[in-house]
Amino acid sequence: MTVSHLFLRYVAIGDSLTEGIGDPGPTGGHRGWADRFAETLAVAQPGLTYGNLAVRGKTSGQIKADQLGPALALRPDLVTVTAGMNDVVRPRFDPESVAANIEEMFARLTASGARVATMTFPDLGKVSPVARRVRPRILDLNSRVRVIAARHGVAVLDVFPHAFTADPRLWSDDRLHASPIGHERIAAGMAHTLGLPGYEDWPDPLPAQSPVPALRARAADVRWAVDHVGPWLWRRLRGHVPGDGFSAKRPVPGPVRPQHAAG
To answer: What local confidence, expressed as pLDDT, does residue 38 receive?
Structure first.
């Protein structure tokens, strides 16, 4: 995207990442990278309207079934798609099925005339010991997303290769969702990916900080397992799905008003 080609209606679809979990809004709810990115777009295009259909916990199949049709009905000229992480962390992962879901979304959205953008997933194993076992799945899915995106002319924010994503300051306490700083970086990366000037430094490392002593780091791992991994496993065993009972936070596109919050 160049300054001479600005978007008038932006719609985001996806899961908790795009809903904004991990980035509290200044007046409640969740802000997130998509809100932040919409605010950036609105600076250059004050008439921009923005809708966000993302819901936490949704798989690629659920996003395709529940959000793709409504997104197309809104007739956006820009759509961002994040899908697949909730498939990756499930016991049974079918990469071909996930890729087919993502490709159908890319195909139908680009066929509508919308500019489409997506992103790869970072190496969660660098910040979450439990997530190391799904690293091969993330590598597989990222590779498929890159190929599918190239086939359909979809822009890709490729976060996986960048070392700064392992910085714990970019992650919430659960080590699965981005922190406010992480969401801010994703928004900047998406702005750069779509050609907005001034965001070339989005993957730069954060300022250095003193290393955490090994004993304290180990204690933090134990506390994280007790506070987050145990409850997550218990909810899964009971059949609880994170998105149950939740709906889109911005189902109707509207004007974008800048927010001011930490991060």
So the answer is: 97
